[in-house]
Amino acid sequence: MKKLLMIAVVIAAAMSANAQEKGTFAAGLRGGVQITKLEIQGLGIKETSNRFGIGAFGQYSLTNHWRVDLEGIYHPKKDGVSDFSLGLYFQYLFNVTEDFKIYPLLGYGFSFIQQEGEKSDTDSGIQLGLGLQYNLKNNWFVAGEYRYQPGIFGDAHSPMLSVGYRF
């Protein structure tokens, strides 16, 4: 099901890219907190974990409204666990004003997890969210996003802040 949804998103973005002219490139730094609420009822496990992450992103505007965002975020070791996550997101920009944008996002995240004393593992899933972007002077911009990643055993909530430069 996840693969079919991702294929549908890619096809929709590709169709939109043909309808309008291409835009620009952007790159920058991104960081935030990942709040994971883990609940496994059969085992009686209920816990919440907060982890800070920092990384970089690159964006390419497919059209005047559609863009793709690729990021890499590193979560340093906490409680014996660290990970590096890659995310690919499609965003649709609503231009509230010339400098202020709102955008829903849909993407897929993939994490490489390292736990102390155990084998490495991977995890992945769909991510949904909403972002706000404000364009500063000289091609600089700041953005804030909220992301929700439904999981098999728990749910992750991630507020993120970004600063970037548009080329």
Provide the fold topology.
Layout: H1 2-19, E1 25-40, E2 45-61, E3 66-78, E4 81-92, E5 94-95, E6 100-115, E7 121-135, E8 140-150, E9 154-166
Antiparallel strand pairs: 1-2, 1-9, 2-3, 3-4, 4-6, 5-6, 6-7, 7-8, 8-9
Q: What general form does the structure show?
A: elongated
Radius of gyration: 17 Å
Enumerate how many helices there are, as a single number.
1
State the CATH topology: Porin
Mean pLDDT: 84
Question: Which CATH first-tier class would you pick?
Answer: Mainly Beta
The counted number of beta strands is 9
Q: Can you summarize the main beta sheet?
A: 8 strands, antiparallel, barrel
Task: Summarize the structure in words.
The structure is a single chain. With 167 residues, the protein is mainly beta. It has a single domain (2-166), classed as Porin, CATH 2.40.160. The chain contains one helix and nine strands. The chain has one helix at residues 2-19; strands spanning 25-40, 45-61, 66-78, 81-92, 94-95, 100-115, 121-135, 140-150, 154-166. The radius of gyration is 17 Å and the shape is elongated.
